[in-house]
Specification:
This protein is α+β, with helices and mostly antiparallel strands. The longest helix has 19 residues.
Amino acid sequence: MRQGRAGVLSALAFVLLCGCCMRLVGLVLGVGLGLGACTGDLDADDPDDSGSPPGDDGGAPTDDPDPIENARQFCVDETNRYRVQHGRAVLMRSAQLETYADQGALISHDGGAPHEHFLQTQGGGIAFAENEFPRASIASFGNGDLSELVRFWIRVTYDEGPGGGHYDNLLHASARRLGCGIHVRDGEATIIQDFGA
């Protein structure tokens, strides 16, 4: 059976860009790193978190003077769009997890191994699962738009299907909070999702 060109390109791109944790299952696919996984609602007493409703149509946000902030919010919204499709709880955006994910994205982008920060700090006491898209070309995989790169990455993550580590983290029933870390330099971005209870 032949796969469509887009499916092959998505799988190939993920293999090339997420060489961190791979396994062979017919095709080589990236695997998310989970110490539990993710989904849920939030403790209302946490001042670091703000609600983030799922996107109705999954459309990229409108132009924003701060493309990184725009992409962070889009990351949460797009994650929630997939979660709602599967009857999962909406994740709340967490400033604490976002700061933690930013640290991991910087370390990985600057030559660290994927998930290095997460593994060395054991989730920093706040994250139990992480997905990472290291050093991806914004021009090649996002058509020059950081939010489109986020859309591409989350779609490839979702396309792993059940049993794929990234997919399982994306839809895990235990998470309540999400932080999307993004580091951009020289036309490349490293994106990390850190999931918390």
